[in-house]
Amino acid sequence: MASQILKRAIGSRSILSSGHLNPNFSSSSSSSSLLSSITRAFSSQALIRATLFPGDGIGPEIAESVKKVFQEAEVPIEWEEHYVSKEIDPRTQSFLTWESLESVRRNGVGLKGPMATPIGKGHRSLNLTLRKELNLYANVRPCYSLPGYKTRYDNVDLITIRENTEGEYSGLEHQVVRGVVESLKIITRQASLRVAEYAFHYAKTHGRERVSAIHKANIMQKTDGLFLKCCREVAEKYPEITYEEVVIDNCCMMLVKNPALFDVLVMPNLYGDIISDLCAGLIGGLGLTPSCNIGEGGIALAEAVHGSAPDIAGKDLANPTALLLSSVTMLRHLKLHDKADRIQDAILNTIAEGKYRTADLGGMSTTTEFTKAICDHL
Predict the structure, then answer these.
(1) Strand duo 157-163 + 48-53: pairing
(2) Is the pLDDT of residue 41 over 80?
(3) pTM
């Protein structure tokens, strides 16, 4: 198709409307110039624009690793980069600017490095701002054993799906009297149905057989009771999927004893925060765990869920695996499965080979060396 357009374009430039040759037309130079222009035009049309938050601390370094791997794999992504502001934006009440949020809304997809929010400073958490403003209602973390990287467990293969917008993280706290503070846990039917529907749909489309709803309804009968009621309602629409309910404390014990008992876990916000980190520990830590937030209208914001590690920032020591694997989930969301498979295989093969690993994986490689090894595996 492109060659046909090129021929027609060259022909139209080389021949006058009267049908005579254009005396000023040089076929070699003009053809080359036109070919370059058309190539650029086709390339720009094929590119998908995605928002990139490099983040704080080691964030810019591991974001650079993603960009290098994507370039080597010829992923058709054009990054629109946004950085955390040094001043609070009154429109978001955080260090995230309104323009950066609009970028994600406009592009519909993004990748986020680690962001550090100072504790107890009286302003809104950066991650909470993103979830609230973009209505990122579900956090999805695939958790699986990595071939060639030995941990206590060899058979971990589960998915945690966490309700992302309410619960104990609603951000509604106040002082009742001096020395007494109150925090409100909000559970709504709308949010509970939405995340339950996503969990069952995910299980069905990914060939999963079981969904476990994690709760503490024996104590919090109203809030967690509503969450379970919504899960049961959705479960009735998916008879082919086994549904069970597990109390949060028992779930933690069962995960540590035998992670293979679980498949897809869906839960309210706070439980999801705890359980997803526990599951990351089963496979080697947050540095190996991908994550993706799903929002209304198909928005997807993949992220590295580990900290910003300011102690090693700028020293070329950071492990970019989590952000790289998160970028793979972003590519799958965009239906770029071939690119996602290539990059994921390159990452896993590099780790399994064992020659190039960062310090947290028991190796001595720098971020640059580890990234180059992944590129070589591509």
Answers:
(1) unpaired
(2) no
(3) 0.84
What is the per-residue pLDDT across 276-297, written as a single tens digit (0 to 9) for each? Answer: 999 999 999 999 999 999 998 8
Burial (CB < 10 A; 0-12, 13-18, 19+), residue 221, is: exposed
**E strand or H helix at 308:** none
CA–CA distance, 373 with 378 (Å, rounded to integer): 9
Q: Whats the size of the chain, residue-wise?
A: 378
Cα-atom radius of gyration of the chain, to the nearest Å? 24
Rounded Cα distance between 10 and 7, Å, is 5
Q: Assign 345 to helix, strand or coil.
A: helix
9, two tokens? 């374009």
Reduced to 3 states, what is the DSSP secondary structure of residue 329? helix
Backbone phi, psi, residue 187, to 5°: -125, 125
Give 135-195 as a DSSP string.
TEEEEEEEEEPPTT---S-S--EEEEEEE-SSBGGG--EEEEETTEEEE--B--HHHHHHH
pLDDT band at 217 (very low <50, low <70, confident <90, very high): very high
Q: Nearest 10 degrees: CA dihedral of 251, 256, 262, 264?
A: 70
Handedness of CA 237, 239, 242, 243 (dihedral sign): positive
What are the tens digits of pLDDT across the range 292-301?
999 988 899 9
Mean pLDDT of 331-342: 96
Measure the CA–CA gap between 56 and 116, rounded to whole angstroms: 6
Residue type, 264: V
Question: What Cα–Cα distance (Å) separates residue 337 from each residue in 66, 312, 342, 344?
Answer: 17, 33, 9, 10
- Lookup: tokens for 28: 């070699």
Q: Residue 129 and residue 67: Cα distance in Å, rounded?
A: 25
Amino acid at residue number 329 = T
- Residue 180 pairs with which residues in a beta bridge? 177
Confidence of residue 5 (pLDDT cuts 50, 70, 90): very low
Contact 275, 214 (CB under 8 A): yes
Return mean pLDDT, the chain: 87
Give the chain's count of helices (H) and strands (E). Answer: 12, 12
CA angle (82, 87, 93) in 5-degree steps = 85
d(C-alpha 269, C-alpha 45), whole Å: 39
